[in-house]
Amino acid sequence: MSMKTIVHLPSDSIEEVIKNLFTKLHTMKPSIFNENAQPSDFVLKVRGFNEFIIPYKRDGSKYCLSDFDYIRKCIHLKLPIDVVLFNRENMHHNLWNENTIKMMKYFDQFVGNNNWNLIQDETRCLSQRECQTPVCIQIISAERIKHYKITKLKDDSEIVNLEEDLKIYITGSLHYGTRLLVRQEFTPVYQIKEGKLHLDSPIMMTFNILISTLPKETRLTLSIYMTDSPINLQVLEINKKDICLATINCKLVDYNGYFMKGLFNVGMWERTEPNPIMMCCENTSSNTCKLHYRMIEFNKPVKMNTFIANEQELNTNITGSVKIDSEHTLRFKYAVEADPLTVLSQEDCRLLWTYRSLVMKTKPRSIARLVSA
């Protein structure tokens, strides 16, 4: 085609430029066009490059000259804008060769089948097997930590004193059912003032287990203990004299099957011992102890699709017959028949879990007691 010069503003639409250029060329040299050619049959092509300037967006609105990077560069560098009219039907020949077009047909068929969802999942998230990283959390802060000191008088009355200046440490453990997966982790001893734990930097708590080998149903149990040990002492085990002030069970996998990530501020259950089979729900009371922690994060969501408990694992000791030991009979009866709001000891909870099949078979009305335990 002949080279012609036309003048337009950057704000002019591409449609207007194409019409102007088409009219000028068609008037001066109509032989270069087909008999029924219209401006809508053409787009603008940057001379010497497979770069096209089209008039309309997908929603039908119009592009203007300044929308295109080539135009803006030419204006910035004060270079002439060199474009040609190009038949839109021939665009694909410049973008793809014949083999590529054939491949695109097969690709379109592939996109239409169910396998495409698998490819999308792989690009959108990480597989659990790829996460060769230990499970770790950061303890950021805690507040409303308190201890109720009960003093009994001679007349059997009680005086309850609230203590908020304490020495505490935090424990973390990973449980699969009642099974402790790895060694329990401990923080150093910290001084609490007015019930608040202020840290200069977050406490890193790393567990000796990789995310790639973590069962999907694993629970994270976090507990706060009061102690008489010196401040900054690294705790290695729980002393019998230490008192559990608050505890909570946390899920590691969300309802979509992804590894939990981000910040969490959870309300803990006070004046109760840690119980790995207790439900994963937080205490919503406004006055309860609050723990602020962060889960490890990755650049993509982690799909926990490797280690999922099968039906046999989930039904272990439930469908089979379990005989209760004679020494546990009275204690089991007390635990099963207790009011659902009664706080059971850790041993009672473990007893209920061990003989849970008997609860379902012989005391089905006491399932609420089992769930609350």
UniProtKB/TrEMBL annotation:
Sequence ranges assigned to domain PI3K-RBD in this UniProt record: 1-87
GO terms under biological process: phosphatidylinositol phosphate biosynthetic process; phosphatidylinositol-mediated signaling
Domain of life: Eukaryota
GO terms of molecular function: 1-phosphatidylinositol 4-kinase activity
Family: Belongs to the PI3/PI4-kinase family. Type III PI4K subfamily.
Key words of the record: Kinase, Transferase
UniProt-listed SUPFAM superfamilies: C2 domain (Calcium/lipid-binding domain, CaLB), Ubiquitin-like
InterPro entries noted in UniProt: C2_domain_sf, PI3/4_kinase, PI3K-type_C2_dom, PI3K_Ras-bd_dom, Ubiquitin-like_domsf
Protein's recorded name: Phosphatidylinositol 3-kinase 1, putative
UniProt domain C2 PI3K-type: residue ranges: 131-299
Recorded GO CC terms: cytoplasm; plasma membrane
PROSITE patterns, per database record: C2_PI3K, PI3K_RBD
Pfam families with a match to the protein in the record: PI3K_C2, PI3K_rbd
